[in-house]
Write a structure and sequence with these properties.
- The structure is a single chain.
- With 265 residues, the chain is α/β, with parallel strands linked by helices.
- Helices cover 32% and strands 28% of the residues.
- The chain has seven helices and 13 strands.
- The strands form three sheets. Strands 3, 4, 5, 6, 7, 10, 11, 12 and 13 form a nine-stranded mixed beta sheet that branches. A two-stranded antiparallel sheet has the order 1-2.
- The longest helix is centred in the N-terminal third of the chain and has 33 residues, at 22-54.
- The protein is elongated, with a radius of gyration of 30 Å.
- The termini are far apart.
Length: 265
Amino acid sequence: MFEKEVGTPLFDRIGKRIRLNKYGEIFLRYSDEILTLLDRIPMEIEAEQIREQNSVLLIMEAASMLLPELYDQILSSAREIRLSILQNCPHREPQNNQLILSASWEPPCKEENSSLILLKEKIRLAVPAGHPLAGKKNISLDAIRRETFLSLSPERPLSKILEHYYFIYGFRPESITYMDDPKVLTRLLSSDLSVSFLPASTWEPMDQSFVLRDVEGLSMYQYLLLSWRPDLPLTPAARRCRQKICDFFTRYNSPGPESEAWSEY
């Protein structure tokens, strides 16, 4: 059969005896390599399946200021997880190993079984520590109407949440400077020239470069949500990653004026 395939005899026949000829030796050498490769196929497939099962894609549409801590939380006791993180990525079809951390001005529907609330937190006015408004506990809308506001770019969830509340309260800052990077925004707040509306818990300043104040007549909140594809089961690694994210946000879920605790699956 093989002689027919290669188009030449592979054996020399001497009487009742046969032996490999030079063409047969070439065929044998490559046959050994082929058999070795065939043996490797199941092992490589199994290794790839393990990698896929341990792979988790986390899309961070919000709370990027917490990303370093969140990353440590996930991997500190779950090193087998192969975590990939995307920020500000265009919409893509969710997979069974994909989690999305996003923000909204409203919670998901009660019937929703593929999303949970990580945190409900108040949005307050961030004022540079050296700004004249920093010394006031409560600030009126008229006092900030002419201030220059810093904001994340309009396509970011926080900006969309603020636009929702601006419409509800009939208030809109006269001057808004947009930027992509949350860290740059917080650095610019130390210049004493601008103010910003920021989530009160997850953006709380660590270096006292700005303070958070209430604005009379404004009651604004954001919901941090974790969601996944409803029609596909999460892999064990994705479920473990989901639990690690929930555990991480329990530190912010102390009932009080800034945040409220939620625990629903």
